[in-house]
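Why show two proteins at once? Because comparison is the fastest way to build intuition. When a single record is shown, students tend to memorize it. When two are placed side by side, the eye starts asking what differs. So, the first record is below.
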Amino acid sequence: MARKPDPNRKTELALAAFAALRERGVVGMTMSEIALALGMKRPALYYYFKDLGELFDAVLTAVLADQQAYVLQRLQPDDHPIDALAAWMRATLAFYEADPQLIGLLLQFWAVGRPDAARDVLDRARDLVEPIRQFAVALLEDAVRDGRVRPCAPEPMLDLCVAVVDGCLVERISRGVDPHATLELFIAQVLLPLKSPVI
């Protein structure tokens, strides 16, 4: 039975390959050129990734894990659930603003590596973030029950927050819009009014 690739080495290689793609461009890049850029033989790269699609999957998984770690470091365990949700939105935006080219490069790499697997890629991304989403929904449900948050539908509210962040990121890329005004307006006029006054 063949030995499985070391997952840490696989992630390391995926991120190094993504760095090479940043430098040289995504379109037209082949596995042979990536192996050359990494200073390794093509069979060694194929040991870890069978094709560009599998390499893209590893990059996407690593980026989403980095995003989650970045965001979680900026949340305070004793924050009010609404304040935590606002902090999550701001931190998610900040993660991508720290690397303004990241989303565009991921989209280009997706188009090259997984052009016919849109549903699969979206499902994998959703599966990676779903546990955190469910945790946040549960926090909001508890806060509505105990009166810290005014009555609302926690699951659609969280989905709305995700949609606002995603929309802000897309608008920044597509139209060059500063997303902060939109995000802060949403937080001030939609999220913060959900906080129940202290009794």
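Second record. Ask yourself what differs from the first in the token line.
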Amino acid sequence: MYVRRWMTSPAILLPTVTPVREALDFMSSEKIRRVPVLRDGALAGIVTRTDLESTHRRTSPMTRLARTTLGDVMTTPVKIVAPDDALEQASQIMLANEISGLPVVEFGRVVGMITESDIFKAFNEIMGGSEKGARMLMRVGREQDLLETIRRRLKGLAIRSLATYRTSEAGDWEVVVRVCGRLPLSV
């Protein structure tokens, strides 16, 4: 699974000269929580609504009159991913850096954003959340062939989704399977 499939595109971008108050109003009206910031058409930083609200609250009216801009408060350098990076790579960068979104950059241009909400959507799809059928949980020993064991235990049920992860103890596999009906008999 690649970032390209789950990112929001095109990305909403703002220039560094945008006043903080205007950016806050814009982000509220567009219902977005973060926005990449451009200088001369290139990615220069990123801001979140929380960062801007905090900046706006702690600046004095005199400073606000001086029109604090995104260029003054943006976070830099910016962590990024490419459209053809694996979704789990984006997730790992976000977890390691405690951030909730990444600009997606291709050939030096911001082409989208991947956020924690996008990753939740992908997770739901991986887990078969939109599929009909029963959800089953099973444990498979680490020394067993994973797929063969699953097929044998399901006894002909049609698999609609499959996710696995290692348990903390002994390295066995936890398997979450969504099944629906029986496979047709082969002739």
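One difference worth noting in the second protein: The mean pLDDT is 88.
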